[in-house]
Amino acid sequence: MPESAQAVSSPVASQLRRELGLWDIVLFNIAAVVAVRWIASAARIGPSALALWLLAVLFFFLPCALTVTELATRFPAEGGYYVWTREAFGEWHGFACGWIAWWSNLVYFPNLALAITGMGVYMAGPRYLWLSENRWFLLAGSLVIFWIPVLTNLVGLRVGKWTENVGGLALGLAGALLVGAGILYWARSASATSFAASQLVPNWSFHELNYWSQIAFALVGIELAPVMSEEMRHPQRDIPRAALLSSFAIAAIFMLGTAALLLILQARDVNVVTGVVQAVQAAGERMNAPWLGPVMAVTTVVGLTGQLGAWVTGAARLPFVIGLDRRLPAAFGRVHPRWRTPHVALLVQGIVSTVLLLMSQIGETARGAYLLLVDMSVIAALVYYVYFFLALIRLRHDPRRGSAPAHVLVPGGQPGVILVGGIGAVVTLLAIALALAPPPDTASVWLFELKSVGGTLLALGVGAVFYFRRRGTAT
């Protein structure tokens, strides 16, 4: 049961079907977090990327998993970090946290759909590369890929969860293929990269520090599943178990995958877009198994489609719960009478992202506006992490903390809570500060800063219009 009556947004949420079990959540976590492009991107900086991954796991991913585990078991309600922030800081901050998270996802979806479509073209071979320059093909392919998870989740998680389940399995298989190919390549020939101790130590230049913050945020997504807590059969039991199981798998895929890629290719030869497939293809040709490359390509595209599905599914629950709280139009909080899904929230999210996708491909003016919106949303995508780390610290004094056997608390008592929440918040704030630092070739520093900060202010401003209008109506 929730820790407080307020933890459940509305009795309407109880109409949702509880379709998700332990392994559904494990695979959902893997699908949400494992973006294979980060393996290739990390490998580009060489063996020191392994140390950067380890530090990112210790100082961001672990605090994030511990925070999610405690707050999700104390407040097992639909809405996840929106509910946690609302409980800690009040309605406006809860709304701001959920709204900014949803805003940043709406902008992110078209980019991910286009990336999957483009990667699919690369995987098809050199004969089809011209399609990557064809906007109409990219647009059509991206729309199909985007609407698959929208429509499957519209009819219920019993069907929709398989997009994420298959995606999680595919990403796990892709990681295993990459690691296996690296080991076999190393066993049959010399490593392409030196792993001497001196090569493993980061030099901590500004560039590498900036890249470390990006690697840390390659590990985001473990907080997404609890947004659907009231669609899980046993959220307080399964969320901690799923976090533990998936965390080991996720860390292994990123770290071992980067090492395996560097066994096969030198850092300077890694393609940041198709590097994982490139490495497996090279290893396959060396071992007279050229079929390995196409298999890796298919698993990668299927896995990334599952990743899009995970974020589409989870993000739609935010406007749904905010609608239940009457801070967005009440229609957002409707549950479909037959499918028992937040159909209005899913469809509105799908339509808005489709408009943004069209903007990104049709006409230079609209494309420029979309790219500006992407640039302006970088900081907004980080803000809600600050919120839920601070929520952990703020809620540590609640006398109900630990009052139920189902509560899985951060170890170390209140000092442990302050340490975990503090580390997570500091790393997030560091990433925000580094994102605000203009690149050396920036033409106008003031314009860069205006776009960076202005995006978050724009998101909050639009949200405030909804919030205070609905608040006045409710009053």
Could you walk me through the main structural features you see in this protein, from its secondary elements to its overall organization?
- The protein has 475 residues and is mainly α.
- The protein has a single domain, classed as Amino acid/polyamine transporter I (Up-down Bundle), CATH 1.20.1740.10.
- It is built from 17 helices and no strands.
- The chain has helices spanning 22-33, 37-43, 48-74, 81-89, 91-124, 135-154, 157-188, 197-200, 206-216, 235-264, 275-286, 292-324, 343-361, 364-376, 380-394, 413-435, 445-474.
- The radius of gyration is 22 Å and the shape is globular.
- The model is unreliable at 1-9 (pLDDT under 50).
**How many structural domains are formed by the residues?**
1
- The dominant shape is globular
Instruction: Compute the average pLDDT.
Output: 89
The CATH architecture term is Up-down Bundle
H/E order of the elements? HHHHHHHHHHHHHHHHH
CATH topology: Amino acid/polyamine transporter I
Fourth CATH level, the homologous superfamily: Amino acid/polyamine transporter I
Query: How big a fraction of the residues is strand?
Result: under 5%
| Low-pLDDT residue spans | 1-9
Kindly provide the radius of gyration, computed on alpha-carbon positions and rounded to a whole number of angstroms. 22 Å
What is the tally of beta strands? 0
The top level CATH class name: Mainly Alpha
How many angstroms does the end-to-end distance come to? 29 Å
Largest beta sheet, briefly? none
